[in-house]
Amino acid sequence: MILSVEGLHKTYGKDKVLKGISFHINEPKIVALVGPNGAGKSTLLNILTNLQQADQGDVSILNKDNKNPEIFKEISFMQDNSVLYDYLTGYDHLQFIGDMQGIESKKLMLTAKRVGMDAYLKKKVGKYSLGMKQHLLLTMALVNDPKLLILDEPLNGLDPTSAIRVRDLLLEEHKKGTCILLSSHNLAEIDRLTPHILFIKSGVLIEENIAAYEKIFYHVLVDDQERAAAILKDNQVRVSYKDGKFIFSSEDCSLQTFILMMGEHCIGTLDVEKKVYGSEDRYQMIYMENGPEL
Fold this sequence. Notes:
Shape: elongated
CATH class of the largest domain: Alpha Beta
Order of helices and strands: EEEHEEEHHHEHEHEEHEHEEHEH
Number of helices: 10
CATH architecture of the largest domain: 3-Layer(aba) Sandwich
Largest sheet: 6 strands, mixed
């Protein structure tokens, strides 16, 4: 068992932030934690890493209690940049970790180069941009080759080039056998990283495999909508209709079957738009009153 979370509760005053959170990660995979600001994502990550105490519940990491300091030899937690010191250099931060965990200077430098921050490693953090600070935080999290990597908004403040580089690094880590739990608002990047998502809403988790929900929908324009609608009804094909187009799932009717069906009745297919259901669509359905039109 890599991570076991059972019945976590956390209250601030009258505000119940976590209401019996439970989930398990049994094998190395990338899992995304998603929710709007204030949903409790950072609180949950802080409790997992014993930076905050839950009011109730248990957490074990790699079959050890999360209060056991030995776990930090095998896990890393990338927090936000408030943990950095402006008057120290990037290398000072890495060297502190190296001294604490017995990591050689050569390994520190290699990790910094891998992340792409070796050029400014000797500069003081106070002169870093937000993206440079994110690079340092990620380097700090990777130097000990963790078995479990926990990341709080790792893509925050990154330009597109840096975001792609970080995404590739995380995929490389996963291929090496590292389990990754990350929170992020960047749903497009999440879709590129993993189908495994924990949506947090009103203090509870909705655990989903987006791949299980993933469907292909076709939005099709034809030149005789009235006759087409009658034909689809006769053939018991489930469709909806919006903005002059028929909308149907590939599970209900293949595109080829639809076009052939229309062709047999001399109805022309004028336009086809293909949409793939992803985490953004699911997010809208969970958090927004008006979900996506699929």
